[in-house]
Amino acid sequence: MTTVPAPEREHRPGRLLVRARPASPHTVCLALVGDLDHEVGDEVLRQVLHALRGGEDVRDLRLDCQDLGAVDSAGLAVLLQIHRHTSADGTGFHLDHVGPRLERLLRITGTYEYLTTPQQAAPSAGPTGFGGAAGAAGAAGAAGAAEEDSGTLDSGA
Fold this sequence. Notes:
alpha/beta; 6-stranded mixed sheet; 20% strand
């Protein structure tokens, strides 16, 4: 089973809690509890990328949105960035338990189908995968891209 290392298991940036949930092997499942907004967006992105890099041969990311509160434009940008990173890496992306507030935001912005249609993992993550030693280069590249993109979150809010 893929898990987030103990010190990072439960991290509360601002008003949002990112909590690792039990998952099947090769799957990272993170519950988002609270508001996903401009105050916490960069930290949430960092935590998700850390969880992806921390697992061995991660093939799927599941974000449990059951307890997700308000999501502003910066929060939506974080979800889109996470989707972009997993797409580039060949990792599956799934939003689970999308509530009515998040669904409304995604539909209004035209991103509902894009973010909720299950993105299947590529058959083999190869050298760009986040998992294991072979994925270190891909993870470093993704982390660098996240740092480059972090400024865009603050400027939009």
